[in-house]
Design brief:
- This protein is mainly alpha-helical and 993 residues long.
- The protein contains 31 helices and five strands.
- A three-stranded antiparallel beta sheet has the order 3-5-4.
- Helix 8 packs antiparallel against helix 9 and helix 15 packs parallel to helix 19.
- It is flat, with a radius of gyration of 62 Å.
- This is Eukaryotic translation initiation factor 3 subunit A.
- Keywords: Initiation factor, Protein biosynthesis.
- It comes from Melia azedarach.
Amino acid sequence: MATYAKPEAALNQAEALINVGQKQDALQVLHDLITSKRHRAWQKILEKIMFKYVELCVDMRRGKFAKDGLIQYRIVCQQVNVTSLEEVIKHFMHLSTEKAEQARSQAQALEEALDVDDLEADKRPEDLMLSYVSGEKGKDRSDRELVTPWFKFLWETYRTVLEILRNNSKLEALYAMTAHRAFQFCKQYKRTTEFRRLCEIIRNHLLNLNKYRDQRDRPDLSAPESLQLYLDTRFEQLKVATDLELWQEAFYSVEDIHGLMCMVKKTPKPSLLVVYYAKLTEIFWISSSHLYHAYAWLKLFTLQKTYNKNLSLKDLQLIASSVVLAALLVVPYDRSRSASHLELENEKERNLRMANLIGFDLDPKLDNREALSRSALLQELVSKGVMSCATQEVKDLYNLLEHEFFPLDLASKVQPLLTKISKFGGKLASASSVPEVQLSRYIPALEKLVTLRLLQQVSQIYQMMKIESLSQMIPFFDFSVVEKISVEAVKHNFIAMKIDHMRGVVVFGNLGLESDGLRDHLAILAESLSKARAMIYPPANKASKLGEMLSGLGEVVDKEHKRLLARKSIIEKRKEEHERQLIEMEREEESRRLKQQKITEEAEQKRLAAEFEQRKNQRIRREIEERELEEAQAMLEEAEKRSKKKGVKKPILEGEKVTKQTLMERALSEQLRERQDMEKKLQKLAKTMDYLERAKREEAAPLIEAAFQRRLEEEQILHEREQQLEVEVSRQRHDGDLREKNRLSRMLDNKTIFQDRVLNRRRAEFDKRRVEREERISLIIQARKQERVTKRKKIFYVRSEEERLKKLHEEEEARKRDEAERRRKEETERKAKLDEIAEKQRQRERELEEKERLRREALLGRSSDGASKPYEPPARALEPGTAAPAAAAAAAAPTPGKYVPKHLRERASAEGAGAAPPQPDRWGSGGGRRSEGFGQAPPEPDRWGSSRRTEGSGAPPEADRWGSGSRPDDRTDRWRPGGGSRPSWSSSRNPPR
């Protein structure tokens, strides 16, 4: 294995080998470079090398080399440049397809050339024998040898690419494209075996994708793009399977689609669901599963009616008619009556499985699922309005078969309808995904259904009928076919009849004690007996009983009501307890079932894994044994051939039991013996050859010496002759050169003159251009100097303007700040003046209030001392004993504005002189309490020096703890330290002006 410092060297070496026809060596060189650990960093040259590598692999049909190289290249460029891997793979598939197409175009009979059961199988022994025995090779054999290898290689290419891209999230689109191309390959060339193998490969890739979830580049199926690619691949697989009529593989494809949707818990688009149900109808029709076929048609009708806005009325009628006819085709009897328990369980599981596929439930609840049945299907057709969309002939047929009772002329009424229905059908113009609908294919099954209905109705009214009459009533089939149909119906307990061929009659019977007719007769008999008993034993007179019980009727009703309420509560409690127990039991049963199901699934998985491993080991062991046996047999046959050539014959006995060990021992012994004989022969031959070679060399030595001397002499003569010839040629060439020199010497002066003239002209032109260049350079320098000066002036002007604007801005900001400061100071001074004016106003109001108080006291007849004195509030440090008389005297003063009798006024004056406590008046005002209104004594000053005044009087309101004289509800005046508020004049009759 050669190592290269640079990949370019390996590429050049490979191209050199290709040019000399050594493609195998060139392929090996590139393979060594790609698989080398030295070049694991991606480079652009590696992509070119891969292109050349896959071209060589395709030319030489080396699929294993191509797979190894692509795997190594994927490791190199997976995290760096995955697009390069995509381009290489596309080039690889393009080359393979192109080669296969070229081979196909060269072959004239493609079907005969591809008449091979398995593209992966090697040639059979009989084919090899035929190719050697047959002397002539016809065109078929030449086509097979030309086309088949390339199609094998193309198939191997598809498998290789799918294997490389199976777990690559960055190349999901390429994986889907490869799968689609492989499907089209199988469809175009009718390769059913390869299609099955391809579906299994894709299915295993998805299983491994879900099994190994910790891979780094694993595709995410929850992403919409990835899910759509996988869905498109499965739907393409489903379409190709139906086109190839591989119905079992098509059903597996449907299960793959449903399983994929169950993994991601997402329902596909309606357009894909239409294809899904359309293919299901074909699959179930081929498998004669009429019930599932009808359900699939119903789903297809619902989707088309809901989502297809372009659906025409004719197409809708055709689809609805197909749904109704497919539902009618279902046999009207239950096949599970005579089935065993195992068959019933299998049928139940099958129904649940089909219900999941048809209903497309992503999270099915098997316990609550309703079983699929003919009666439920017909009810659903009526409830969903399918019957109303069908054609009139189909509606009439449905009514005749399901609701009418015409045992004698049922077939005659149905036959014209079937004739008309058979003419309906065709391709749907507004539903391209729906297959071509032909109602004529339902006619044979409908005739069988009509026969069953006729036999059922006849059996209800007749006990015996001639075979000829019954045959005339059923014009669809011969009586032998009718007999088979009746046997099947009797087997499943649909009708009860016997055919007596000796008498030529058909005997009808009942279906046992549980038949519908007998059940009706028993019900009628029970009703008649009940009426007869009522007539014989009439009920007692209710009026007499009511009169007897009338006395204690109320108590009885109350007791009965209470008993019923108690019973109702007990029943409710029992129901709740029973429901709770049932729920608990169901929960326990569900947990046990899930646990058991989990254990069963784990055991089944282990068993399947063990069986798979065991089968794999057995297969590997069997292949090893077969290969060893073939090798031993080949060795023995080869040894026998050699022994036959020598005349020794050791045949294997016919009766002897030949085993692998015997063959191996015999072959090894033969090889050992042959090797020993060969070694002896070689030793003897080597000794003989040594003597012979020595003798030949001894005889040849003098002859070789003589030949060498003769050769020396001949070469010496030849050398002298060639030397003389060279001297003559040189002399002649020298003479010719001298003659040419003498001939051209006459032109030397003219040449010199011309040369001087050319040099002078060029020198003058050079000097002129140099002067022009210097002048141009000086002009450019002057222009650039002027430009620099202008630029500097502009810069200086811009900077000066910016500084000036900046200075103006700063001055404007300073002016605004000064103006704001001046306004703030003016506002402060204005507020101070307003506060001073307000304080003076309050002081003036207080003085006016004091004058008003003095005036009131003078009007009330106060003493001259009290009237002459201005009001002075008591001092804060006044003694309690001195403050009490003044307060009492102030409290005893009558309040102005109220009427006071004369004797009371006199007594108040006397008591005021004696400092006696005042008596409460008729309004309840005491002497020690403050009263509302005029004549109230001045309040006691608070801790801030303000007088406390009551609300409703003419005095100022009580000051708060901050010294404000405003009331709590006064919002017109703001608080000021040490100031009061405007007095309230609401209670005063004569406010001061």
